[in-house]
Amino acid sequence: MPPSLVVEVLTARPPPPPPLALPFFLWAGRQKGFRHCFPAFHALALLLSTAGLPAAADQLPDLMRAHGKPVSHPQLTLLVRLHTAARRPLRAFHALRRFRHEFDFKPEVHVCNRVLGALAAAGHVEDALKLFDEMSEAETQPMQ
Fold this sequence. Notes:
Elements (H helix, E strand, L loop, with lengths): L2 H8 L7 H12 L8 H13 L3 H4 L2 H7 L6 H13 L3 H13 L7 H13 L3 H13 L7
């Protein structure tokens, strides 16, 4: 089975329900000689997030590590984009912090700016100031 088939199933319209999609994804990963591709992980995170399961989507880095894939900036960008688009700025903020501390990432400026904007727009000014201070300490210049 090619990895593109998993992506096609997860991105089908109408989307498969998460109680079917997640077991399918995990089953495919257990097949002999099969390895998930990055688009499959992204499709799963998108499916879970749009289904109203943001906590499950936040497990994307753990799932990738379990399947032997390295976690990188595109995964952080995806999670931040999903959470800010769904008006969940605190989840985006926590994802950003998790990637910084647990995975030792230096977030890209546009990702930080997106989280800053979402926090400020939602009225979480104290969290936005915390992020701004963290960015300054990490020598990431906000609002470039």
